Amino acid sequence: MTTHDNNPLLGKNLRVNADRLWDSLMEMAKIGPGVAGGNNRQTLTDEDAEGRALFQKWCEDAGCSMGLDSMGNMFAMRAGTEPDLLPVYVGSHLDTQPTGGKYDGVLGVLSGLELVRTLNDLDIKTRHPIVVTNWTNEEGTRYAPPMLSSGVFAGIHSEEWAKDRVDINGKRFGDELKRIGWEGDEPVGARKMHAMFELHIEQGPILENEGKDIGVVTHGQGLSWTQITITGRDAHTGSTPMPLRRNAGLAMGRVLEKVDEIALSHAPHAVGAAGHIEVFPNSRNVIPGKVIFTVDFRSPDLDVITDMEARLRQEAQQIADTMGLDIAFEKVGGFDPVTFDDNCVSAIRDAAERLGYSHLNIISGAGHDACWISRVAPTGMIMCPCVDGLSHNEAEDITKEWATAGTDVLLHAVLDTAEIVE
Amino acid sequence: MTTHDNNPLLGKNLRVNADRLWDSLMEMAKIGPGVAGGNNRQTLTDEDAEGRALFQKWCEDAGCSMGLDSMGNMFAMRAGTEPDLLPVYVGSHLDTQPTGGKYDGVLGVLSGLELVRTLNDLDIKTRHPIVVTNWTNEEGTRYAPPMLSSGVFAGIHSEEWAKDRVDINGKRFGDELKRIGWEGDEPVGARKMHAMFELHIEQGPILENEGKDIGVVTHGQGLSWTQITITGRDAHTGSTPMPLRRNAGLAMGRVLEKVDEIALSHAPHAVGAAGHIEVFPNSRNVIPGKVIFTVDFRSPDLDVITDMEARLRQEAQQIADTMGLDIAFEKVGGFDPVTFDDNCVSAIRDAAERLGYSHLNIISGAGHDACWISRVAPTGMIMCPCVDGLSHNEAEDITKEWATAGTDVLLHAVLDTAEIVE
Prior knowledge:
2 copies of one chain form a homodimer. By secondary structure, the first copy, chain A, is an alpha/beta fold. Chain A has 12 helices and 15 strands. In chain A, the strands form 3 sheets. In chain A, strands 1, 2, 3, 4, 5, 6, 13, 14 and 15 form a 9-stranded mixed β-sheet that branches. The first copy, chain A, has a 4-stranded antiparallel β-sheet with strand order 9-11-7-12, with helices on one face. In chain A, helix 3 crosses helix 12, helix 8 runs antiparallel to helix 9 and helix 10 packs across helix 12. The longest helix of chain A is centred in the C-terminal third of the chain and has 22 residues. Chain A is elongated, with a radius of gyration of 23 Å. The relative contact order of chain A is 0.19. The interface between A and B is large, with 77 and 77 residues.
């Protein structure tokens, strides 16, 4: 790799076009608007297809050629001067939560596009090609698990299994990908990477609270999703005496309390909650005979995750036994904590230093496509602050300055890695 | 009223046709089958319409004339010898829970039909007309509150308000009643009643546990439904530190525990549970920003209901305040405890004695159409056992013997009240 010391083009005055970056973010946010100012552009919907088409048009206008693999992952390549060198990848995802924000994922894709546009403006060439990526179904809301297609790319899941995932209406991932017209021919995971960088909003409050522009992500939290099914007995809420009830809803309430206790016992880094809860038959005058819910535990320490998962099963089993209920556990998602690549992390930190942005080492609390890609390529992540740490919420917000700082750092880290032709 | 002592026709050998009663129950259960052997014949669905048409055909075959009011309540009349006397009503409801049984409500309607058929067989005439009733939307699952149309009949709700109720898909009660073709012209509540009897399965375990054939219902439990909305903040399950979370799902778990504690503090007659629970946005990696759920409290003592409701609000408010969440309460259903009419209760007890059926005074734990009708007419209720006390469950079950005993008692209590012409 070159460094800024022997490459005058990598000076602190090399910056992206902040207005153009912001305008593109606002333009993309018009597709799949939410109900409260954010976005509902869930994966493999018509809105997802519309967002993809706009991204493709922008990339082609910027002189890139678009690749598309059979999971719908999009790869927009800006050629390098040495076609045999492996490309440097940047990117994230364009899909959103059902009540998602404008920046989660989108910033990581469109900052890559802005980087290419800036290089075009300045007629800067790199030895390695640069590829801007949109990974399919990062969110995992419509099709669990999250980071599904980067997971297939990294060999975590088989493509067959991924395509057989079904949404709540029974629609298969594979069928929906075909339906929206974004199934490509390229085999998934065939590409080799020189390196991969992902810029993402923090989705937490630390950078804003500490007044830092840039998070240099050193590690990613591991995750464990346990889906719990508790089975009691549907019965009339009026005429069933209290001692004879087998109330699955009450048991769930008790497990939710335990989830909180277990996560707090590993403060400050571990977290736990249940976001997904279904109650059957869900009628005001029927005691719930069944509940299905998913417990999400995270920690940067694999031992802590293992401990939380085991304690959850033990405590929940005890609650069910005491109440005379049946209980079943299924691990429906998980990944180990990640340590990002030293060279990539250094490139990011150096870029922030060079550009005069304040920065902080940080652990990613959320899962990201970069977490899977780190299994198959040297990978780094950049974070920028978001207001109140809020994400997965239509009120998710960032400033133009934060987006710009993150993209400037991305530009420099990528150029440092892709090697400018002088 | 006459008594069995001066009416030889009311002898213990006068019984209904058990096989015909059972066959009709099985025939009706074919309409709107459930997924596990029970029924899903929810109010104002196509299946409800089909069940109504079958009931009408059976009534007309038995020589009855059908009346229909503008809430869709059906009134099949067997004429008396003195047309100016007020009729004796029997009946219940043909609609079911989404995962309901074959007998809840249905037995009360078809036992009335069997009573008429038996009188026809034996050519028994009564001074008062007898009317077999099917009350619309007793269950309240699709359109809250339960006992909606008997409630309008009794002047508890206005018809306009009732017709404006909407289901979960936004469809109005009034529009759906029209759509299925069962909106009549008769003004609701215009009919006056000499008396009203309802036979219903117990929906609780007491009669079976005590080995009794007949429950002589002396009182009905009062009910209070409080819908609670807790609002926190949607946020990412991974990157939001525990102390900054506003987890509405966890708060609900804590309230569910309080509901149980409050009901148990008024043992043995009070009960409490939440059967209806909705979580938003209900995604595995989003901390719930909102929950809506309904707490059902019941007791035969009005003071206890009032106390439970007040404590719920106080405890839930405190949980929300402690966690920094907003909370709102709405009373979405309720009725006061009921004391049934002395003469009707005596007629039921006398009939059980006369027929040699074992019996027990009992409090109805569930709400029933008879609870509302007791506000406007002398009313009595008969209960028969059900297996394991199970109801609002497709596995709800009774024996042919239990159904027959209940119908025999209904026959005698009605004849005692409608006065046999000798």
